[in-house]
Amino acid sequence: MSRGKRYETEGKLNYQKVFAVIIAIVVIIMFVLIIKDVLAQRSKLNREYNYFAVFSADKWGVINQDGETVISPSYQEMIVIPDNTKDVFICTYDIDDSTGTYKTKALNKDNEEIFTQYEQILPIENFDENENLWYEQNVLKVMQNGKYGLINLNGKQVLPCDYDNISVIEGIENSLIIEKDGQKGLANNSGSILIEPQYTEIKNLGETYKEGYITVNSEGKYGIISATKQQILENKFDEIKQIYLENNYLVIEGGKEKLINSSGETLIEDGFDDIKSSTTRGVIFVLDNLYGEMSTSGETLIEAKYQDLKQVKDDIYIAKQNDKYGIIDVNQQEKLPFSYTGITYNEETDLFLVEDENFQTSIIDKDYNVKLIGILVDINKDYIRMRIDNEYKYYNLNCEEIPSTESLKNSTLFLKKENDKYGYVDKNGNVIVDYIYDDATEQNEYGFVAVKQNGLWGSLNKDGQTIIEPKYNLDNYLNINFIGKWHLGEDLNMNYYCED
């Protein structure tokens, strides 16, 4: 009888099963990586970006807040980004200097042309009193068939292209002069008509649009219209001064300068050469080049004996005497001596910022106690940042020192100095970047820091990794700031970045 074949059951692998397991593991890994990449791409698509103009090799382009190129530098003129949270980029091209002509277009982040139905697309420039440039919010000036109108940054038309020109009231936001048939009117950034085109001139009354507008008619007579379209004063005055005085107005009528109320009643017409501002008790007036305060009935409250006078609280004034600033109360009692080159009141923090001849700032509380002395870097409702003894220090609004980790809640790197060198630690104090730099900055809102070594600047990312080795001489730059490899340009007014 034959015997059955005996099989060995030990020492052999089932290669088919092993291969199947390996394939399964590889598939799972690939699936996880694909899902991870999809989530990352989705996160990137849903992420809100900020955009910045950049200058490289004599050409202009656009980057985002991660330092990634959005529009390659290829334009002769600076690309204007009216709102850096929106991917609307205004490009100027085909410039002919001999005729003064040019073309404009708008691009999005995908380098696609948008708003193509218009002959011209222009940002609306404005300037503050220090000639700092800014752009009107969420509005563009467009031309169609030789006439101008307005669209918002989503491309919606908010004012039809019916006007001969659209311009700004310099220094005043949300106030656009519209011109038609030789007459001027006023619209806001949303396209609402506040004043129909029927005047020869429209000016601001105060420092913002909320205070209303001075209008001049064809006969050269002045009146006032509020921001809510109400006629406050009829156009019958020879002049109205551009000074906001609450419900009162400084006018010239019949060659006489006087203070009147909204009913046209004369309040004061003597005892002053000029009126500068309103107070809770009356007005600040000027007589023989000296400042004082009087009530609206003409009673002198503070004698005109100061070179400058400004009310900052109900009973507190910043005054100037003998070319120095101090603080007085309603009884003209000195709360702070006249020994400073400048004083400002920060209403948000209820603190006085006092400058001396050495360009040092003293932080003084409401009881006039000097709390801090140094170079003021930043002050806001959350913290005060000072440079004291060549170190950056943070304080709460009680002027108590606090760690930078408490102030800069969104940061991942925190500047620290040891042995006269700068480095960075994390929120737990662990060293992330060694103390090797001669100077450095705190992390900016986009996660980058600037570091200086051997007189040159470079940048690190949010993890402390080197983005660009120190290679830029930025001695003439007032603000050192990086986004990736790009550093902020020298002209802060233009707000652009460059890499050379």
Task: Please provide a written account of the structure.
The protein has 500 residues and is mainly beta. Among the domains are: 341-402, Thrombin, subunit H; 421-500, no CATH class. Helix content is 7%, strand content 50%. The strands form eleven sheets. A seven-stranded antiparallel beta sheet has the order 31-32-33-34-35-36-37. The chain has a six-stranded mixed beta sheet with strand order 3-2-1-47-46-45, with no helix packed on it. Strand 39 (421-425) and strand 40 (431-437) form a beta hairpin. It is flat, with a radius of gyration of 32 Å. Residues 1-10 have low confidence and may be disordered.
SS elements, strand count: 47
- Please summarize the sheet with the most strands: 7 strands, antiparallel
Query: Helix amount, in percent?
Result: under 10%
Determine the structural class based on helices, strands and strand pairing. Answer: mainly beta
Strand residue percentage: over 45%
Overall morphology = flat
Provide the low-confidence segments as ranges. Answer: 1-10
Instruction: Compute the average pLDDT.
Output: 92
- Strands of the biggest beta sheet: in what spatial order? 31-32-33-34-35-36-37
Radius of gyration computed on alpha carbons: 32 Å
The N- and C-terminal alpha carbons lie at a distance of 95 Å
Count of helical regions: 2
